[in-house]
Amino acid sequence: MKHLRRLLGLALISISFASYAQTDKETTAKIVGNKAYNFVANTALPMANNDINRIMSAMPGAQSGTMINLTGSQYDVKVTKDSVVAYLPYYGRAFSAPYNSNEGGIKFTSKNFTYTESKSRKGAYIIQINTKDVTRENYRFTINISQNGYASLTASSVNKQPIVFNGYLDEPVKKIKTSKPDHEIWLRCLFFEYFYLKNMWPFFTGYK
């Protein structure tokens, strides 16, 4: 518990020193209120101990201490009202190894989970997500979100030591839907081309 409090403290400090935001105050309030946002991870902060420190310091992207740079790696967590999709790495001590090497990290899609939201005195959002249907192991995510869109995510489970990810919120890109089905648009183009050629052919060739 002492180590976990230290990790949470470091995560909150990193948020408070951020100099610019990915989402403004209004956008942050909107996407959090709608339960439709992406958490994009920039760094990972495993629970520190001497063994892990030695391993982490030798890894590409390692910064001071045990902080791992994830910028450009496209690690994220997509949250909607109906699902939580996690695609995150894991650094730290796992108490049981996966049978399949492809199952490493924190990667899952959950559609059965609890979701609670509260706010701190300073206006930061605190999100608690507990999955119930992840096959190998369920996870608890604690997401602290500043009003300017910066966030930290603490992931914990029975089989892994906690790990903190620092990053920011991103508004999901909405898919643009055409007003007409694709096949209807194609047929309209085909008929237009037919009548155009039929009427313009005599003009270009002199034949009726």
Please state the oligomeric state of the protein chains shown. single chain
| Percent in strands | 25-35%
Q: What does the radius of gyration come to?
A: 25 Å
Give the helix proportion (percent range): 25-40%
Q: DSSP helix count?
A: 4
Helix/strand class: alpha+beta
Give the tally of β-strands: 10
N-to-C terminal Cα separation, in Å? 89 Å
| Gross geometry | globular
List the uncertain runs: 6-21
User: What's the order of the H and E elements?
Assistant: HHEHEEEEEEEEEH
Average pLDDT level: 78
The profile of the biggest β sheet is: 10 strands, antiparallel
List keywords for this structure.
alpha+beta, 29% strand, 4 helices
A few lines on this structure:
With 208 residues, the chain is an alpha+beta fold. The termini are far apart. It is 27% helix and 29% strand.
